[in-house]
């Protein structure tokens, strides 16, 4: 395998140094180092490869929106070396056979570590548990289970799922949405929804499920993960639960750190997402929660859609937006440039902690000699105007199109292989 030296790069918040990548691991760190090929890291930040706990790769069934290969390419361009592929495919990833199919497609792509997420219930229908044990024992070794896109709304079924996953140290990742409170909902319930005449999605629909589930997790003594938390009240519930030692973790998406519901006044379906974009007060609360560690991680909820599902009237449009390629820049702008987090905290929220929650032992490791060479090199001095036509994802529904985001991924290394070099896909 070709060896690489990344010259004069800053590891997290330290001083510039050289990093040699050889035979899949970090072989040397120091000054004046050499290797077969050189990567200019001057002015750049080295972070452990990013880990996304919430990615929609759409395959099998919706290859018109994304495939495991195209999604892996998008992930590499964003600095990711591992992604968790959500279960709402067609067929649903509710059996060992389907999760193994997704896992093998990831192995064949060879660009990131693709970890399938198993469904909690059969067909995502919320009536009977899926084959949790079989998926955990499969070659995919599933440890994260979610009906994302649908809430496990039955309290008894949610309790059984939490009890079941304890046997193999799994975690249930809940899409917190009380279905009866969100029937027909189109955007955040508030002043702007009233002004626009769009059915509102109240904050309490999210908060009520989170409150119920943290109590269930405490009762059962199991692990709970809350997907795409979006309201100030949700942050407070998670903070309360953690203060009492309840084993709960939570995530926030880049778009919930960046946008408020004011952008919906454009009626542009690119901003239609589940959960909806919230108020300025909610954005400030989730930023503060991420900064102080109440919210454990950033997860993209990368949700690609073909153009016909987004280029239509608002009420007919699909929920979701892409996010893998822009996530690090958005976190840099909203959390680092604002002084809320340093680079060590970014590494924790986007690599170390998601790897721990997903039980991916080879990811999120410190940048030190002997560690797996999963790295992202990011240039904070650069900037880029987002052009939807040039995204690597098979879909173009990025909400940042036409906006200028700070920073750029210069290189991504996955198991010592450069999947991105000089800002270009190397695969």
What does this structure look like?
The protein is of the alpha/beta class and 427 residues long. It folds into two domains: 4-45 and 371-425, Urease, subunit C, domain 1 (Roll); 49-357, Metal-dependent hydrolases (TIM Barrel), CATH 3.20.20.140. 28% of the residues lie in helices and 22% in strands. The protein is built from eleven helices and 19 strands. It has helices at residues 68-77, 96-109, 132-137, 155-165, 191-196, 203-220, 232-243, 254-258, 280-292, 327-336, 343-357, and strands at residues 4-11, 16-22, 25-30, 37-40, 45-48, 50-55, 80-85, 113-116, 144-145, 171-174, 187-188, 200-201, 224-226, 248-252, 297-298, 375-385, 404-414, 417-421, 424-425. The strands form four sheets. Strands 1, 2, 3, 4, 5, 16, 17, 18 and 19 form a nine-stranded mixed sheet that branches. Helix 1 (68-77) links the parallel strand 6 and strand 7. The mean pLDDT is 98.
């Amino acid at each position: 395998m070709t060896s690489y030296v990344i010259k004069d790069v800053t590891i997290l918040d330290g001083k510039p140094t050289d990093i040699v990548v050889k035979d899949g691991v970090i072989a040397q760190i120091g000054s004046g180092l050499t290797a077969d090929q050189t990567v200019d890291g001057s002015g750049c930040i080295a972070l452990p490869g990013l880990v996304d706990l919430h990615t929609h790769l759409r395959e099998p069934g919706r290859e018109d929106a994304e495939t495991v290969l195209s999604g892996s390419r998008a992930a590499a361009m964003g600095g990711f070396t591992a992604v968790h592929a959500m279960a709402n495919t067609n067929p649903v990833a509710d059996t060992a056979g389907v999760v193994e199919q997704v896992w093998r497609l990831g192995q064949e792509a060879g660009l990131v570590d693709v970890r399938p997420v198993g469904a909690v219930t059969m067909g995502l229908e919320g009536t009977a548990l899926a084959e949790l044990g079989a998926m955990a024992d499969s070659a995919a070794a599933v440890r994260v289970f979610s009906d994302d896109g649908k809430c496990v709304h039955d309290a008894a079924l949610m309790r059984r799922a939490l009890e079941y996953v304890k046997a193999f140290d799994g975690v249930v990742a809940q899409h917190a949405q009380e279905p009866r409170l969100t029937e027909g909902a189109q955007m955040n319930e508030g002043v702007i929804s009233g002004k626009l005449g769009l059915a509102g999605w109240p904050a309490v629909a999210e908060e009520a499920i989170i409150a119920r589930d943290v109590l269930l997790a405490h009762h059962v003594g199991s692990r709970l993960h809350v997907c795409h938390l979006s309201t100030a009240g949700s942050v407070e519930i998670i903070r309360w639960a953690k203060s009492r030692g309840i084993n709960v973790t939570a995530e926030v998406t880049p778009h919930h750190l960046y946008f408020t519901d004011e952008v919906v006044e454009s009626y542009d379906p690119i901003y239609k997402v589940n959960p909806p974009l919230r108020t300025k007060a909610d954005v400030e609360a989730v930023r503060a929660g991420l900064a102080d560690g109440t919210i454990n991680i950033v997860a993209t909820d990368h949700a690609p859609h073909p153009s016909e599902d987004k280029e239509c009237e608002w009420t007919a449009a699909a929920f979701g937006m892409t996010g893998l390629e822009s996530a690090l820049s958005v976190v840099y702008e909203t959390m680092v440039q604002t002084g809320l987090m340093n680079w060590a905290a970014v590494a924790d929220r986007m690599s170390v902690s998601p790897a721990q929650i997903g039980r991916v032992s080879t990811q999120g490791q410190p940048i030190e000699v002997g560690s797996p060479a999963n790295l992202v090199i990011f240039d904070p001095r650069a900037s880029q105007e987002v052009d939807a036509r040039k995204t690597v994802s098979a879909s173009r529904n990025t909400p940042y199109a036409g906006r200028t985001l700070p920073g750029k991924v210069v290189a991504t290394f996955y198991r010592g292989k450069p999947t991105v070099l000089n800002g270009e896909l190397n695969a």
